[in-house]
Every structure is written in structure tokens, then in C-alpha cells.
Automatic annotation (TrEMBL):
Source species: Shewanella canadensis
Lineage of source species: Bacteria, Pseudomonadati, Pseudomonadota, Gammaproteobacteria, Alteromonadales
TM stretches of this protein: 20-40, 46-66, 78-96, 102-123, 135-157, 177-198
Subcellular location: Cell inner membrane; Endomembrane system
Similarity comment: Belongs to the NqrDE/RnfAE family.
Domain of life: Bacteria
E.C. number: 7.-.-.-
Protein name per the record: Ion-translocating oxidoreductase complex subunit E
Subunit structure: The complex is composed of six subunits: RnfA, RnfB, RnfC, RnfD, RnfE and RnfG.
Length: 220
């Protein structure tokens, strides 16, 4: 989570991209793991939860930023939760009207977006201190990063656990699905594998960067 900034941030590419890699909500900050583990047994569930969280994150960050000078400090957390809950209710009814099967598959985790640390953390530590445009761009990056993480798990679990992606068969009839992957333990297995891969790539990049700096300093 970002430290509370003392002044408004200038919009740069990093404002958006930090949520994709450097501060990815799942693979770096390990936030919102309940829905990540619970609803990613299929790709469609991952997409729906990711888009729902993205909408709530962007909408709540926008409104918090707009009202940041009007909300008293003493009730800011309660105010943020009310704002977030309003948009979560909108998403809840929208998904229910689009597909009851999807709504039932996601269960209570749609309503639990209200207490998702990713969203409340962005509201408290970032949107409440930044202008609207900056808050929106940062929220978009965080939301997209969260959705990508959900997709990484959802695609992997459905592919290995059912041999399909979005219901389309990807392997021959001889493929034996790994049923454990679409069961609760599979979420932990796949999340652990993705965390290992993410950390490995991160360390490789840091090592390469240090080597480049070492060569440059040696050459000078």
C-alpha cells in the first residue's frame, strides 16, 4: 500500500502501471485473497469478479477524490465504506439481472467487495489525497492488475481442472482433468505457483538491473 502522500502526484505512466506489476494487489501486496481463492475455479467467474471489482474501485476512488475536502477526517473511513457499499450494491443487482447462474456462482463474494482491502486501501491511502484524474488512472491500474491476477488463476484452474477455457474444450477426449484444481485446495496450489513465478521474474529483473549498473559504474 502506498504511504499517504503529502501532496498531489503528477500523472505519469507509473501512475497506471504500478498496479500491474510493482504494486500488483494480489501477487505483490497479497490483498483480496478471499475472492482470488474462492471464485477462480472458472475463467468466467474470474472475469466477472475482476470487472466487478474494477468498476467499484474506479467509481469509489472517483467519488472519494471528488468529496475529499468535504468529508470530515473523523468519519472518513465510515464515509468511504458507505460510498463503496453503494457501488457494490449496484454491481450486485446488475450481475443478478444479467445471469442468475453467475450470481449464484459468485455467491457472497460480490457483497464482500465492500471490505476488500484493495478498494478501501486505495480510498484511504490514495484517492482521498489526489485529484480526480490521478485517482481514476491509479484505480484503473490497480483494478486491471487485480483482474489479471484473477484471470491467471481462473484460466489455469479451469484448463487443468476441466480441460476447458470459457467452456470450450482445449484438449483431446483422452485428457484426464485434475479435479483438485477446481476444488478449494487447487486455489492454494495455483496461487502458490503464480507467486513463485512472479517472485522469480522480479528477482531476475532486479539482478539484471544490478548487473547493468555494475557494468556502467565499472566502465566509468
Amino acid at each position: 500500500m502506498d504511504p499517504r502522500p503529502n501532496q498531489e502526484e503528477t500523472i505519469t505512466l507509473d501512475t497506471f502501471t504500478r498496479g500491474l506489476w510493482k504494486e500488483n494487489p494480489v501477487f505483490v501486496m497479497l490483498l483480496g485473497l478471499c475472492p482470488v481463492l474462492a471464485v477462480t475455479n472458472t475463467t468466467m467467474n474470474a472475469i466477472a469478479m475482476g470487472l466487478a471489482t474494477l468498476f467499484v474501485l474506479v467509481a469509489s476512488s472517483t467519488l472519494v477524490s471528488l468529496l475529499r475536502k468535504l468529508i470530515p477526517k473523523q468519519v472518513r473511513i465510515a464515509s468511504f465504506i458507505i460510498i463503496i457499499a453503494t457501488f457494490v450494491t449496484m454491481v450486485d443487482y446488475l450481475i443478478q439481472s444479467i445471469s442468475l447462474d453467475l450470481y449464484n456462482a459468485l455467491g457472497a463474494f460480490i457483497q464482500l467487495i465492500v471490505v476488500n482491502c484493495v478498494i478501501l486501501g486505495r480510498a484511504e491511502a490514495y484517492a482521498s489525497k489526489q485529484k480526480v484524474s490521478t485517482a481514476i488512472i491509479n484505480a484503473l491500474g490497480m483494478g486491471v492488475g487485480f483482474t489479471i491476477a484473477l484471470l491467471c488463476l481462473g484460466v489455469t484452474r479451469e484448463l487443468l481442472g476441466a480441460g476447458t477455457i470459457l467452456g470450450f474444450q482445449m484438449f483431446s477426449v483422452d485428457f484426464e482433468p485434475w479435479i483438485v484444481m477446481i476444488l478449494p485446495p487447487g486455489g492454494f496450489f495455483v496461487l502458490g505457483a503464480w507467486l513463485l513465478l512472479f517472485e522469480y521474474i522480479k528477482q531476475r529483473k532486479e539482478k539484471t538491473h544490478l548487473n547493468v549498473e555494475g557494468v556502467a559504474s565499472h566502465g566509468s
